[in-house]
Amino acid sequence: MAIFYWTLRALLSHWRRHPVQFFSVLTGLWLATALLIGVQALNSQARDSYARASHLIGGEPQASLGTPDGASFPQDVFAQLRRAGWPVSPVVQGRVQLKGLGHVRLQLMGIDPLSLPGSGAVAGQRMSQAQMMAFFDPPGRTWIAPQTLQDLGLHAGQQPITLNGHALPPLQAQADMAPGLLLTDIGFAQPVLEMPDRLSRLLVDKAFAAGQPTPPAGLQLKQGEDNNLARLTESFHLNLDALGFLSFVVGLFIVHAAIGLALEQRRGLLRTLRACGVSVRLLIISLGVELGVLSLLGGVLGVASGYLLASLLLPDVAASLRGLYGAEVPGQLSLSPWWWGAGLGLSLLGALLAGASSLWRAARLPLLALANAQAWHEAHGRWLRRQGWVAGTALVIAVLALWFGHSLAAGFVLMAALLLGAALGLPVVLNGLLKAVLGRSRSVLGQWFLADCRQQLPALSLALMALLLALAANIGAGSMTSGFRHTFNNWLEQRLTAELYLNPQNPAQAQQLSRWLAQQPLVQTVLPTWQVAVQLQGWPADVFGVVDDPTYRQHWPLLEASSEPWDQLQQGDTLMLSEQLARRLAVKLGDTLSIPTPQGTWTPKIVGIYADYGNPKGHVLVNSKHLLTHWPTLSPARFNLRVSPSDVALLTREVQRAFALDDSRIVDQQQLKGWSSQVFERTFAATAALNSLTLGVAGVALFISLLTQSQSRLGQLAPLWALGVTRRQLMLLNLGQTWLLAVLTLVLALPLGLLLAWCLDAVINVQAFGWRLPLQVFPWQLAQLLGLAMVATLLASAWPLWQLYRSRPADLLRTFANED
Amino acid sequence: MKIKCLLWMCCLLVACDKAPEPQESFAGLGSDAADFAQVVPGKVFSFPEDHGPHQGFRIEWWYVTANLKDAQGNVFGVQWTLFRNALKAGPTEASWRDSTIWLGHAAVTSATHHYAAERFARGGVGQAGAQAQPFNAWIDDWNFVTRPGAASSLADMQLKASGAQFAYDLHLTSSRSLVLQGDNGYSRKSDQGQASYYYSQPFFSASGSVTIDGEVYKVTGPAWLDREWSSQPLSAGQTGWDWFSLHLDRGEQLMLFRVRQADGAGYLTGTWIDAQGQTQTLHNADIQLTPLETTTIDGRKIPTRWSLKIPGKQLDIITQAVNPNAWMNLSIPYWEGPVRFDGGVGYLEMTGY
Question: In this predicted complex, what is the ipTM?
Fold first, then answer.
């Protein structure tokens, strides 16, 4: 035990003498854990929210019966079905706004706790009879997630008033409630939602629904798995995950570099300890304990800052998810102790991974071998060759993944292999380049400059790899985001042609609106749209029925189309569909699509494919005549109005005067465009933030490598100084070396980044979202990024160089004295 | 007499020493019993109106049991119950504001199997309910309804229920008049004055089908309807009861129950119904009821073999459960199943064990 104690003390003393190295290991661990943990926190929070929403009733997603267009239906259907033996339970649902909190829109859901299917559990628990009584006996209860309650600044027991003047039953915080949702008894929800004796849907017992019973007229059955939010948002989270892992890898590079350096510097110490009789086993155990303590420290720091990071990014992520998918995620983090433990475990595992090779080398340390720069260089040569092979293999894997892979996972394998290959190949390429140039240099100082560059390469290569990866990721993601924004804005501009959009509240209002609009002189054209929600091979999609109008022919851009597509859509039994749906269902022009309708399957032919960016659900366009043949009971879901832009405000006022339509049901083009691009920006806000952070991590890696290296470089620089090179020249030479390596890395990062952008546009996007984007290069953006990277390099090298510049002649002289 | 509902009501009020865990109840949590209509002697029954629900009273039930047999001699028991529980005294509101909770119990028993199911429903929306004319009592697709063209309200009935492993569909007929239990339909439950309104139709003949685990049996046999309503819980100290409805082969019918008390004493009473439908109230002193044998179910000792003597009626029988494991493992668990004895068949319900 005593030996162990003194060995450990001797080993740890190194860190006391080299605090910078200590902090670099810690920083590496901290950054690696923080980013990964941050992303994991965001994702788990979001997934937890979906699970809460879909598992609210009965602890699992429920099958349901509803009208095709999502309209309400009479409550009598409930009793009729129950008396016919259907195990159904009524639900009424809608949006409410509370007085004083007008900007917040909440979902209000009314249920009948007595007839719930499955286990009958609500929000993760079976209601006791006392709870049930309190729930439906006036004044009743409004169940709300504790976080939502806090976000709204309300208190349990309060009875908030809705904008239409109804008081909700007293609020009651209930763990396991879905965020943003108010749950009350159906008896209280119906009046608040102004849906007396009407239902939004009927939950159906899962086992019963699995038997595919024939639904009553006018209703359609949706299986529980069909309304799974997790499915739609899957790719969004996968992207975040990928970024998190990238940061983790970059962080571990730092740890690996710092620990490796510490081992190199402690060779003498290790040798002495072995010579004193410390066994290899004890030495390894001591080093292991040291690594464990370091990673625990880094892990704790990382998990804490990961949490902080996640809570900073969460509002943006929550806003994206709400905008894109209508998914409610609370703006505050709540994570289980299990999650904290997992974060720490991950950090320990990462540290072990990063330190494993150092431990291995320490275990095989020859007792009497001397540290020899030349020998080490030769060893590095062998090492480089091996690395070259690994890089080559990774690139082959990337090509194979591109060739044979047809899934998102294969897409990520492609990206990972590409990045790994490029990173590992970087030192090989740099070494080769320097060697090639070295042969041509005539001047002595020039030769030294290049040779010393090569000598520095092993120490700096990991940091340079990190820089390469971060920069490439930034270029890739940046090009993809900008390209997407560009394409998206053009598409919006083309597609949103109507000046005003009206969404009637109910079928009766739709009829009145239709008649009223026909008499308005201000309205140039009325384009009513009918809408039906369907499941196409299990994927949720909306079928839109439209009338024939030049507006569509001129402003509905098609990616692919058969000849005269709009004429065909007008006359034949045909449809057009969105690009992502076409990919999802693997259909092409000329194929037929099977659409389930109340009367059986409808199989129109595909005559056009169009872009529908940002829509997680499928989008199908058919002629309204055909739609109404299959769903005769539909009424228009929306009226798109062509109006002269100057008349929009006037018409809006007239519509409001004639019909009690609230603001959310009258949308003008400008609003819609603004809203769409807002959703878009928010989607990428989190990605952009994470991207900048990875670049920051790479900068830190470079800084730490340079700093650790600068301490051992005096030995190489002292002879030059003795030969008459001034310290100023030495500093400039050093800066030149760092810059040379950095610039070479950046130059290599450029094509790699563009390749990555292509992968994102043409592989990842297609697999994740279903749309392919054209690769666009934005030179100004690239220049900015490169400039930023150069600044990062300059900053990273400033302090070590300053130290060199400040080193006294005595320090330089001492290196000769210390030479053994 | 169908007392489990009373158990329900009073379980929170009464310390049930043998009940493993006190169950909460809907009715027990409602308003004070005093606000509800009270059961008083001297009520004149009026049919068919009294077949329907009695608003103002707190609890009420429609309850049918049948002792059935198929051509091979297999013996079956069938139970069908619909409970109405008013959570509040006073007029009830429309739709979901209706303060009535309906509860259905159904069970099928054979010598080897016993399956039970329950259904819950809110009043006011049509999922469950009862009406006097044309008579119908239902919860979901469980139904006790007068068939079209019946001579009178309860003369020709259909009885239907199903659970995960069982189903039955029976045709019940009777041309006999109803039997008022207790004192002209006023049935006492204790010496402290607890009582209910109570009438029966013990003379139903049933025929139809019983399905157990997918196997269909064609069956016939006698059936018994009980109708009862009240507002009062049992008195404190009453812990449970043993209730019998027996069809004697010689044409007489017997209803008797014993409400057990914590102090070991019990309130024992019954009605002797002769073959012509004439009734005679039996009192404590007329009846000798003794448990002979118990069956252990879920850690509870349930007496499934009884000795019953009514010397005044020359009755001396030993009743034996057709299936001693006829445990109703529902939200409120109890024992209920068919019994047989030398000279007849019947039903037995035991609660509070």
Answer: 0.88
